[in-house]
Amino acid sequence: MVSRHHLGLLKTVPLCAAVLALPLAAGCGAKSDAADGKTAKPASLAELAKQTDCSPTGKRKVKDLEQGNCKTSQGRYVLLSFTTDNGMNAWLTEAKPWGGTYLVGARWVVVSQQKTLETLRKDLGGKIVQGDHHGSGHGTGHG
């Protein structure tokens, strides 16, 4: 049986993780370091799709985020729009250990390959962020 003390701890751990992630995510704010200085403004999934000429498929919407998959001449990517900064920061904290590359703006994230994100960044602004690297040796060398 779990004590009340442990139940309280289980409730506060995600909150602490989100608070600790805020300084890290602060570097992923709305301003872009793109050459044209484009500012990444908060946008809904529909607005992000329109800006990237995408008709999202597989759309999902939950309490604090919306997601859609895109395939355009620019490449394949996933659009995510969040209702709060805390929601976005918590999502990034959970996603980064899995690796990947993210274009991060103001309450939105695009997930794709580096080259695709560099192209989309010209339209959306934002900052490209890398997830954790797991090395290229996984799954190889087993003869």
Class by alpha and beta content:
alpha+beta
Q: What letter string, H or E per element, gives the SSE order? A: HHEEEHEEHE
Number of DSSP E strands: 6
Total domain count: 1
Shape: globular
Report on the biggest sheet: 6 strands, antiparallel
Spatial order of strands in the largest sheet = 1-2-3-5-4-6
Radius of gyration (CA) equals 17 Å
Question: Count of helices?
Answer: 4
Q: Give the low-pLDDT segments.
A: 2-35, 138-143
Share of residues in helices: 25-40%
**Quaternary:** single chain
Distance between the termini: 47 Å
> Could you tell me the strand content as a percent range?
15-25%
Average pLDDT, all residues: 77
Explain what the structure shows.
It comes from Actinomadura darangshiensis. Residues 1-26 form the signal peptide. This is Lipoprotein. Keywords: Signal. The model is unreliable at 2-35 and 138-143 (pLDDT under 50). Helix 1 (4-26) packs across helix 3 (85-95). The relative contact order is 0.17. It contains four helices and six strands; from the N terminus they run ααβββαββαβ. It is globular and about 35 Å long. A hairpin with a 2-residue loop joins strand 2 and strand 3. With 143 residues, the protein is an alpha+beta fold. It has one domain (4-130). The chain is 36% helix and 24% strand. Strands 1-2-3-5-4-6 form a six-stranded antiparallel sheet.
